[in-house]
Specification:
Length: 336
C-alpha cells in the first residue's frame, strides 16, 4: 500500500462548476471549415498517399513511347473519404481533426463516432468503423496534432500539470470544452446524423469519452478503452507508469500548491463523473496495465449506474487491442 499523496474527492459544487462550463458551450457557435486532407492524391480523388508528399504525378504519356512510362508507386489509403475539419474553440484556439466517411455507400447521413486522441496526440485512421457504415471524427483538442497551431503542449508546463492548482485555469477545463464543442459542430454537418452519436477513445481518449458522455445528453453510447485520468488518489500514491510522472514532478517542485491541485483534480477525475453517465458504456482494462491500473479502472466501472460491460484482458498492458475495437463496433451497432 502506498502512502497517500493527495486526498482527491468529488467537490460539493461539482455540478455547479460544470454547469457554468456547459453555459459557455451553449453560448459558443464556432464556424467550421471542412476541406480536403493534405495527403489526398491530386490525381485520384479518394486516394491518400501515406508514405510521402501528395504531389502531382504523371498518369500517362500524351506523346511518346509508352515503354518509357514509369508508375510512381506509393502506400495508398483508399475506400473512404477523408476531410480535415477545423474550428475555433471558445477562446479562439484552433482545434480540429480528421473526418472519415464511407465512400459511395448510397447514404447521405451516417451515425457519428467522436474519437478522442490519447495523450500522445495521435490521429488514427478508423477504417474498420468506416467500413461498418460510421462517420468517424478523430479529434485533436488543443495541444494535439491538429490542434497545435499556436499552442505548445509542453510550455509553460506539460498538459496534465498546466495550471492544475486552479480549477478555472486548468487546461483540461478547456480540453473538455473543445470536446463538447466538437459535438456541437459535428451535429450540424450535413453528412452526419446528430441523433446517432457515440464517443470512443483509448487511455486519455477513453477518459475524455466518458467525461463528455457524462456532460452531454447527445451522446447515446460510449466505448472507453483503458481509461486514464482515473482515481488520482490511487495513482499518485502508487508506482504507476506513463505520464502521471509529469504531475508527480509538478507536486515535487511546487509542494505549496498541493491543496489546490487536490481540489482541482476532484473536478476532473473520471470517478467524479461516473454516476452522471446515462448512456451505455463499454469499458476495458489490461490486467497488467501499469498506466491505467486495473484497480482504478474497476473502481470507475463499479460507479457507473447504467448499462455497462467491462472487458478484462489477462496479461495485457497499456495497448490497443483488436478485440476491443471489434466489440466496440458491435456496441455502437446495437445502441446507435
Amino acid at each position: 500500500m502506498g502512502k497517500k499523496e493527495l486526498s482527491v474527492s468529488k467537490p460539493e459544487d461539482f455540478k455547479r462548476y460544470w454547469g457554468k462550463v456547459l453555459k459557455i458551450v451553449e453560448e459558443c457557435s464556432p464556424d467550421v471549415s471542412v476541406g480536403k486532407w493534405e495527403q489526398e492524391d491530386p490525381n485520384f480523388e479518394g486516394e491518400y498517399i501515406v508514405d510521402g508528399p501528395a504531389a502531382e504525378r504523371e498518369r500517362h504519356l500524351e506523346n511518346g513511347n509508352p515503354f518509357d512510362f514509369r508508375w510512381d508507386s506509393h502506400i495508398i489509403l483508399t475506400g473512404l473519404t477523408l476531410k480535415r475539419v477545423r474550428f475555433l474553440s471558445y477562446d479562439g484556439q484552433e482545434v480540429g481533426g480528421l473526418l472519415q466517411l464511407p465512400r459511395y455507400s448510397g447514404k447521405d447521413r451516417f451515425p457519428l463516432l467522436l474519437h478522442f486522441a490519447g495523450y500522445g496526440g495521435e490521429v488514427l485512421i478508423d477504417s474498420d468503423f468506416v467500413s461498418a457504415g460510421y462517420a468517424v471524427f478523430n479529434f485533436s483538442h488543443r495541444g494535439m496534432l491538429m490542434g497545435s497551431k499556436g499552442f505548445d503542449r509542453y510550455s509553460p508546463a506539460p498538459l496534465i500539470a498546466r495550471h492544475v492548482e486552479d480549477k478555472e485555469r486548468y487546461i483540461y477545463r478547456s480540453i473538455v470544452i473543445d470536446g463538447l464543442l466538437a459535438i456541437k459542430v459535428l451535429s450540424k454537418l450535413e453528412m452526419t446524423d446528430p441523433g446517432r452519436l457515440g464517443v470512443m477513445g483509448t487511455s486519455q481518449g477513453g477518459a475524455l469519452a466518458l467525461i463528455v458522455a457524462a456532460l452531454s445528453e447527445r451522446v447515446k453510447a460510449a466505448a472507453c478503452d483503458l481509461p486514464w485520468l482515473t482515481d488520482y488518489e490511487y495513482v499518485l500514491s502508487h508506482e504507476v507508469g506513463g505520464l502521471y510522472g509529469e504531475l508527480k514532478e509538478y507536486l515535487r517542485r511546487f509542494p505549496e500548491k498541493r491543496r489546490g491541485v487536490a481540489r482541482t483534480l476532484g473536478y476532473f477525475d473520471t470517478l467524479s463523473f461516473a454516476d452522471q453517465v446515462r448512456c451505455p458504456v463499454l469499458m476495458s482494462l489490461g490486467q497488467a496495465d501499469p498506466i491505467a491500473p486495473a484497480v482504478a479502472v474497476r473502481r470507475l466501472f463499479e460507479r457507473i449506474r447504467g448499462i455497462k460491460t467491462l472487458l478484462e484482458v489477462p496479461g495485457m498492458g497499456h495497448e490497443r487491442s483488436t478485440l476491443f475495437r471489434h466489440l466496440a463496433q458491435k456496441w455502437f451497432d446495437f445502441f446507435l
